[in-house]
Amino acid sequence: MKPMHPNETPSLALNSERNEPSLHDEILSRLRDHIVEGNIAEGGRVPERQLCEMLKISRTPLREALKVLAAEGLVELLPNRGARVRALSEQDLGELFDVMGGLEGLAGRLACERITDEEIAEIERLHYEMYGFYLHRDMHGYFNANQSIHQKIVEASRNETLKSAYANIAGRIRRVRYSANFARKRERWGEAMREHEMILEALRRRAGNELSDILFKHLRNKQTAAVEHLKTGDEAASEPA
Predict the structure, then answer these.
(1) Span 36-41, mean pLDDT?
(2) Helix (H) and strand (E) counts for the chain?
């Protein structure tokens, strides 16, 4: 065997260091999707043992992922009692969507001043990818592509303070933005796709004020669908078994 040079790092250690972050990211992504897609009831306790079995991991990496989701606002950590999915009231939704609409509107205006042709091309690619998911009624793929488009517009604003504020609010309403797609599903999906066509067209023309107005209205429509879904869930829960 060839002797190792004193300054040479073992490949196994390098691979381990490379793989650890990707494993953490994979666990985080799967756990986030599991919660966002409504597999745990709003306000419900996070079943750590079941999730460990599902993800084939120990409790330590699970709890590390839950800390990240708590920072995002998706779950709440309970002292010595695990975690639960954060529940939002109608007032919470109204306030959060108002702020989110304002942030996205500002991001759109700034993005039109600073976005590159390459970034517009990437958003356009995501748009047509999302349209494919829409045609196949693939909720998971549609939602992820949709979120990527909004995130790309925010990133194109080149404003770190805005990005930080956006991430904070986005995490808190990520679950309800997903579930809102089930409210008046067919017509809402069609409406949302038309709005995204308008978003892309305004972005291509770098029409900042127009894009800002479209994004704000888009979030307002999403808020209406989210509140409707919340009320439907409340009514179902109040009905006698």
Answers:
(1) 90
(2) 9, 2
Residues whose CB is less than 8 angstroms from the CB of residue 148 and which lie 6 or more positions away in sequence, other chains included: 126
- What pLDDT digit, counting tens, does each position of 65-95 carry? 999 999 988 999 998 889 999 988 889 999 9
Mean of the pLDDT values across residues 85-113? 94
Under 8 Å between Cβ of 170 and 178: no
Distance CA 56, CA 91 (A): 38
- Indicate if the pLDDT at residue 241 is higher than 50: no
Residue 169, amino acid: I
Could you tell me if 59 and 114 lie in one domain?
no
Tokens of 140: 């998971």
Higher pLDDT, 129 or 79: 129
Is 38 exposed, middle or buried, given 0-12, 13-18 or 19+ CB atoms closer than 10 A? Answer: middle
In this structure, is residue 6 part of a structural domain?
no
Question: Are both 98 and 63 inside the same structural domain?
Answer: no
**Cα→Cα distances 241→154, 202, 238, Å:** 45, 49, 9
Strands (E), 52-210: 75-78, 82-85
Q: Are strands 75-78 and 82-85 parallel, antiparallel or unpaired?
A: antiparallel
Strand partners, 78: 82
Distance CA 147, CA 36 (A): 12
